[in-house]
Structures are given as structure tokens and as C-alpha cells.
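Sat 14:20. Reprocessing the chain from the morning session after the first attempt stalled halfway. Input below, unchanged.
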Amino acid sequence: MHSLYSILGVSEHATDQQIKTAFRKLCMQYHPDKTGGNKALEEKFRQVLAAYEVLGNPQRKYNYDQRLAWQRTSAAASTTSTAGQAQQQRPYYQPPYRGGRSYSFNVNIQVTARLSKKAMWLTAAALLAFFTLLYFFGPEPRPRFPEDVPETQVELPPIASGLFPQVANPNPVLVIPGQGEQRLRNFLADGDTAHTFLHMDNDDVPELVAGGYLFAEREGRYHLIFHYDGAMYVQHNRLYLYFNDLVGEYRSCYGCAVKTLLNDEPVAEIRLVYEDGQVIFPGPDKQRSIAILENLRHLFDRGVPPLDASGRDDGTRKELLRHFIAFHFNQRDGQLTRNLFERLYNADDKDTVWADLAGMMEVLQKRITSAAAPGQ
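Finished this time. C-alpha cells:
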């Protein structure tokens, strides 16, 4: 059975540390900044994030384990029932006589005691009265978990219920400013954009994510809320933005990367949240800033290598820019980012790298602030 454990490649008896280690390894392997826009690997990355959001949370993991055990119990019970019916329908086969002694018995059973018709009617009337009273005045039956509880009534963890929401219309009308209205299938026909419906707030109507487009339902139509020109992933009410188109080949080859970071979870990204029908920046995440700073300190302790004859290094400068950008959009303080850069970066090309970094942060700021639909 395909499960969230198989997505992370761990056993169902894996420890929390083993799950976290597998998650970090897969994030490094399938991170969109390192896969060159491969759609299949991007989808794998999204699945890894979804799996860890359940298995990385003790309560959600417990609920998921309960549900998984129930599904397997139900499947086993169905298989056993089918096998039992086949066994009952199998005709008796008399083995052939192969010599030796044989015995035969004649069994004659005769039933002599019979109930009179009057006694039978009285018994039937008494049983009918008993079950009638039980139906109207007896206690309410309590369903036994998990056999008598329908699958649709089992409470799922938020991320699991958000992965497969019920959608009344799988081909809704989309409203995009400047482009009018069009059906989802026509919108998707223009490219290989993947799409998914998921719950990002507390209402019963799921939002729609198609590539870098986020739509929310209003009055039977899905209106554009946010659009990002780049790789975007959505989990629950959080949006993760990546910018490899800007830093992917900065002073290095596209596939060059530093693989010895202390915090190899995807901290070098821009994070937004969806609240009250709007996409906004959350407040500074202290723990994330610490993780970014630890990676930066590790990179500078390794040393910024000199550029070769072609003006490239081993990917260190690219990784530094990626982390400075993530720090900037987490703190939302340009002066703090500039002071941090001035204090840490000590290579000869300091001024050039800062100019490039400032330009990238400005481009990304314009992308994000202009990405919201008018009126949002």
C-alpha cells in the first residue's frame, strides 16, 4: 500500500530522527533550485513536503497511523470474507478408494417433538413485541471503531484532508484580470501546468493552485489571488517561493552546490501565508533566521574560494546569495541584511557581489508585491 512512509523511503517503525534525516536528504535531492525545472522532480518535492508535514508532527502522525491501520484491517477483512465465501461454495470431493478397510455408518435421526401452531404464534408475537420495544426505547447503538465507522467520517490530519478535498466542479470558471473568464481545462491547455485543489483556510470550499497561480472561489467562480513567475509550492496555508532563475548559474554551473550545510532543510526560500483571502508576508521566524545564519557562518568558515579563469567557483557564492535573500525576506529589513553582508563577506569581489544581491532582492520584491490581483 502506497503511504507517506514510502514517499520518505522509511519504515513505518522509523524513529522521529530517522524520519527527519530522510526528509532532509530528499529535500536536498529534489529541491527545485537543484533540479533544473524538471516537472516530475518538482512534484516529488511537493510530495516530500506533504509527507513530512504529517509524519513530522506527533499528533498528525498518530492520527495517520490509526487511519492507515484501519484501511489495512478493512482490506484484510474483505479478503478473508471473499475467501470464506469461496470455501463455502466449494463442493465436497469424495477421495477415491485406495484399498484397506472401509467402514460405513447409518445415522437415523428422527425429530418427534413439534411446537403447536398456537405456541409458534405466541413465540413470534413475543419476539416482535420485544424488538419493537427495543427499537423505540432501547439505547442508541454506538459505532465500534474502526469497523462500523465510514471512511468519510474519520477525522484526517489537516494536511491529509487538504490533499484530496471533494470538489463539486473539477472544471470551474477562472477569472483572471486582463484575460477575462475561461475554464480551467482551457487554461491548462496552454502549457503543462499541474494543478491541485486544497484547503488553505477554514471554509468548506478548497482553493485552486495551478503552477504559480493561486485562485479562491467567490460566487461560483475562481478569482486570481496571487501569481508568481517562478517555482511555487503550496502546503496548507503556506506558499514557498523559489528563485533559481536568478541565482541558478551565478558565478558557477547550474548543478554546482555546497553539500555540507549544517541545516539542509529548505530554509533558503521565500515564505508567504494565505490569510483572509490575501497572500501576505508572515512575521519574522526566529528559528528559521537562526538556521539561515548557521548555514552562512558555515559557508564563511569554509572560505569563499577565488574565481577560476572563467569567473566561476564551486557554488559557494550562489549558496551565499540564496541564503542572504531568504534572510532578507524572512526579516523584512533591508538595512539588517546589508549590515550582515558587510560584516560577514570579506572576499575581494565584495562590492560586486553586494550589487548583484541587491539587484536580485529588488527584482523579487517587485515580483511578489505586484503578484497580487487588483483589489487584494
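The chain is about 45% helix and 10% strand.
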